[in-house]
Amino acid sequence: MAIEKRVLVVDDDDAIRALLCTILRRRGLPVDSARNGAEALARCEQCRYAVVLLDLMMPQLNGYEVLNAFGKRKREDRPLILVLTAGAEPRNLSADLVAGTIRKPFDVEMIVDTISAALTTLANREQLEECPPADSDMDGCGLNPRVN
Amino acid sequence: MKKDEQPRVLIVEDNDAIRVMLFTILRHQPLNVDTASTADEALMHVLECDYALILIDMDLPHCAAERFLREFNARRPEATSFIIAVRDPKKQTAIDSSVVIAVLNKPIEIDTMAEVVRECAFLVPPPDDPLPCGKTPESEQYGRAERNSYFAN
To answer: Nearest CA to A109 among B106, B147, B110, B7?
Structure first.
């Protein structure tokens, strides 16, 4: 089983997913993406993620609902979550679940540095056996999220 | 502005991931940055060097942040550092407004934090009689904070 620190980008905006996936891949990080909360949770059933970048306003389970689902997991089974916000201040985000928030439009360098820095502090963990190769290893990184 | 004239900032945070994230973001600002993961470590820093600004997690275990602030005031009464407290709003940790100039709620909005720290740090005048701090800021020692955190795991 692979030892890795994989990142999940969850956003319904194709351009943002593609951008983040491409940039993080260039930094040598394995990245998956999901277009909505339902896909994100399905991904998390298959794979272990070190960091999740989570948009709040999405169709088919929004970011708040995804956070609720993560809140039911044991602390050690939760990824480090960074929330992407737009417009108004997000309501009632739990500091136990969310490590930080980043406003859109975001500074690309800042977001990549933030994720890279967080990853250095997280312990390596074995990836789940059923986890497929990362989207970042395929063509069209971030554009064609694949949920088996 | 020369690097050694830039304001010096201390981050006090026990969560490795958050501390290193904050350090990484602030390192890219025109600031000299040090970090501490405990109140004792923070106290050692402030007894050696003058900080324009201290960003402290008020939710350190065992009320360590309050203890740090008390000790800091007692042992460095002349210090002019701005203190910014970070706290979980649900925990309603008491904040002494005579000591703390601003409170940031968790989860931290990272870009706001960077802006607030940068702006505030430049408002603090340099001390009249600065401590002879001989330490190179961590932000000048590439990778130190990351390495320490990594080996701590």
So the answer is: B110
Edge-to-edge strand list for the sheet holding B32-36? B32-36, B8-12, B53-57, B82-87, B102-105
pLDDT tens digits, B88-128: 988 878 888 888 999 999 999 998 899 999 999 999 988 88
Please name the residue of chain A whose CA is at the shortest distance from the CA of residue B91. A95
Cβ pair A113:B23 closer than 8 A: no
Element (H, E) at A32: strand A31-34
Domains of chain B: 3-148 (3.40.50.2300)
Task: Please name the residue ranges forming H helices in B28-109.
Answer: 39-48, 64-75
Q: Tell me the sheet residues that pair with B82.
A: B53
Residue B134 gets which letter from DSSP? Answer: -
For A19-69, the pLDDT digits (tens) are: 999 999 999 999 999 999 999 999 999 999 999 999 999 988 999 999 999
- Contact flag B24-A122 (C-beta cutoff 8 Å): no
Counted domains in chain A: 1
Task: Answer whether residue A148 is part of any domain.
Answer: no
Whole-prediction pTM: 0.84
- Residue A143 falls within a domain, yes or no? no
Specify the CATH number for the domain of residue A91. Answer: 3.40.50.2300
Give the separation between CA A145 and CA A118, rounded to whole angstroms.
Answer: 24
Contact between chains at B107 and A95 (C-beta distance less than 8 A) = yes
Is pLDDT of B144 > 60?
A: no
Residue A61 resides in a domain: yes
Residues of B in contact with A118 (CB under 8 A): 17, 20-21
Which residues have a Cβ under 8 Å from the Cβ of B62 and sit 6 or more positions away?
none
